[in-house]
Each structure stands twice: as C-alpha cells, then as structure tokens.
Amino acid sequence: MPIVPIPNAGSVGVIRDIAQHELPPAAWTDAANIRFLDGSCRQFFGHGPAYGAPSITPYHIAQLSIGAASYWLYAGAEKIYAVTVTGGVAMHTNLTRQTAGADVNYAGKQNAWTSTMLSGIPILNAGNEVDPPQQWNLDPASRFKVLDNWPAATFCKSMRAYRNFLIALNVTKAGVNLPFMVKWSSPADPGGVPATWDQTDQNAEAGEYDLAEGGDRVIDGLQLRDSFMIYKEQSVWRMDFIGGQFVFSFRKVLGLSGAMNRNCIVELDGEHAVLTGSDFVIHDGQSATPVLDKVARRALFQDMDTAYNDRAFVFKNPFLNEVFVCYVAIGGTVPNKALVWNYKDRTVSYRDMPNLNHASYGVVDSTLSDSWASDNDSWDSDLTAWNGPGFTPNLARVLMASDEGQLLLLDASASFNGVLPESFLERRGLAFGDDEYTKLVVSIRPRISGNVGETVIIRVGGHMTDPTADPEWDAEIEFVIGEDISADCMVEYRYIAIRFETGTAAQWRLDSFDYEIQRGSKW
To answer: How many domains is the chain built from?
Structure first.
C-alpha cells in the first residue's frame, strides 16, 4: 500500500485565501488554538491570572523596572494603578493624579491609551481632548501628574519617545483638533523630561510640522532604528533628526499603508510589523512587504467585526517569535481572537483570546510562574517541572489586560484560565495530485506527543465531487498518546479531509503523519 508522508506538519501553517484543493499537502485549511513552531503543530500554551485581581478593569498595560523590582502599570476608564510583588504578595497601588488629596479621574477609553518611556520615566497618554499626558516619578508614594512643561489646553492622540525627545501626534490646541500635526519637545536632559514645547523659542529645538499631504489623519508612531516612523491612516512618514534650524526632516516612505489604530505597531529586529486598514505588513522604513498576501489577508478582514475595528491591536511574543494581531471576531465586542504570525517560520495560526483590551511583554516576578503554589494546572495535565520555570523566560513574558477585570499571563499553563481549549487542525480538498481517481484511506499514522494515556481525536472524511464542499466525516477515531501507532479506517472519497482535535489531552504536539492509501475508482 502506498504511504504518503507529511513531514514537518507545521511547516506551512494555515492558508485560507487560496482554494483548498490547490494547496500543498502539508498546508492546513483551518486551525484553532494550535501554534506552528519549528515545523510542528502544538496546542497553544494557556493563560491564567497573575498579580492578583486588578483594582480596575485594565485598558492598557506597560512594564518598567525600579531597581530590581518589576512593576506593571495599568490604566483604565478613570484611574492608573501599578502592581508589583512584595514578599510574595501582589501589591496594587493607586497612582491616579490628585488635587487636594482627591483623585481626579481620567476619561480613558479602550485602545486609546498609549505609553512610552523617556530616560526611565513612564509617560501615559489617554489620547483624548480632556486629559493631558501624564508622568510618574517612580515613587510608589507619589501619583501621576501632568507632564512637566506641557503647554496648557493642549492634547494629543498619541505620545512616543524618540531619542531624547517626546513626540506628540494628532494634536488639539484650545479646542481645535489638528489631525495632521506632529509636535516635538526640546531634548530632555538625562533622567528628566523636556524643558519646553514652545515652537517659537529660538533657543530651543522644540517645533511643529503638519503632514497635510493626502488628507489622512495621523494615528500613531514608533522609533525604527535611528528614525521615527509616523503612521497616518493611509501613509507612513519618516522623521529623522538633522539638527540646525529645522531640527527634523520629514519624508513620505509608504503611500498605501498606514496604521489601523493606535497600538497596532511592533518592532521586529530593525523592521516594523503593522496592522493597516486593509493589510498586515512589515517594512524597513523604505519599502513594505505584505506578509499575509495569498495566505490570510482576505480571511482576516472578513472575520473582523467592522463595528469594532477601532479596538484591534498588535503585540509581540518575542521568545516564541510571534506577533499577535488581536481583533473582534464577528459577534463579539472586545478583541476575542488573534491571528498569530510566526515571523521566523513565516506561518499563520489562530488563537482564542480572553476578551482583551491590550497586552504587552516585559519582566514578571518569578514567583508568578516558577513556584509550585503559582501553578494552577491539575497534576495530570501539568507539563512543567516541579517548582521549575514556566514555558517562557520571565524576562520576556506577555501580560494581557482582559476586559473581564483580570491581568492574565500568556503561555502560563496548559489550560485557558482553567478551561481546556477546543483545539483542532483541519485539511480539506486534498486530491494528492490526482483528481480523476478516488482514494481509499486505510489508516493514518501520526507522530503525536503529550501526556501518555491522554487522547487526540482523528477524523477522516471527504467529498466525492466538490473539493470546496463541507466534508462528509466518518466516525471519530480515538488516538491514545504513547500507546497507539496508527488510526485505522476505511474511508473512500475523491477529495480527502482530515482533522485532528483535542480529546482529553491538555497539551499535545503533532510532528508529522502518514496517509496509508490505495487508489480507488476513476470518474
């Protein structure tokens, strides 16, 4: 009997934009909660609560270190808090600005906050026309306050650091919105904030520039190597320090790609990965490459609920070489799904997300993931070592701000906050290069690893005439990890479909598999 091997089962990933019967045998037509890493298919590690219950529903998070301690700032609808671990206990501290000893609440909204660090000083901006940018002096006994020397009655949609300058984007002055304006400060002294934003001061390097060409509004910005990239709705501009009278030069570098929202840009080893209004691209400051073209670009935007596109955001999971594009799937109201792009393996997968407002990576306290007490997985499902480290190093952990009032640590457990996720891999329309004959699948021989004795469900099916039709599935086959070698079946179709899905296995990995087939009848 002929054997059709599928080595490196995760080497191609999911491809949704090309007809399924035209794909190579190793490609998958759909998947959920499976990541593709180093050529294999692995159930995504889960997530669980970290740092105790936050005092508010977090909309935005940012990490910083004060001495040897790691702090996470989280901002919400009205307040800003910081959390750190002291003596094994998570301590949440209210850092909301005050007047006469009383909190002065912010008017924060989902995916409107931005954050940046200048000389170790955190600066948070609510991105509205009510709250000016805020700074904190790193003293837990102190509160956030209006950024020193920031001009009165002035606001901005985003604020980012570049070199020793602060850059304000999409500015409002005295009630008048200037959506094309880029405003920059004078350079700050080490350990301090800028002394002035006065563009008329001839002795300072503060200034303003209007990117009015094209009429698309400024959305956000981020440093890329020695330049600062400004993202508008439909274009990208490069801002370079030149000194002298003009201080900065401005040059349009991309004319068809901008940024969908704030917080939709991440840096990847000298490139930016950006979610635009119609694509997901990487660029080096000169030219852009669409990374989802002929893979998942159309499928991604068809899956988004357009009523909530303004809540989509992007974050990086550096240890596993991944960028998460988080969005509201149709029927939701908060980002509940992510397209996950592995920027080393160039594969696409999908993960269910726990209704997120934002996520970021940074340093977490080791007691949150390395101790026995912190491990909430059951004895049978746990794959980590006793009192040993978690799945990813604590220097590069992703913390997620859930709209359900939780701070959740990514890749922290086998379960999704205590629930075993529904995970599957599926391939449809497989003709093995021969549309004329039917194929009799005698067995599937998978190489699956995980906890011995737990199960993965294998289903084989297909369709006789239409490679795009929903498959007719035969009975489920229970594959027992560590015991079974093959999943025997007798399934005959012209276009074959196969599906691997979670049975009882809390974590499982598919490295490769073989089809054992026989040629059937001709048309």
So the answer is: 2
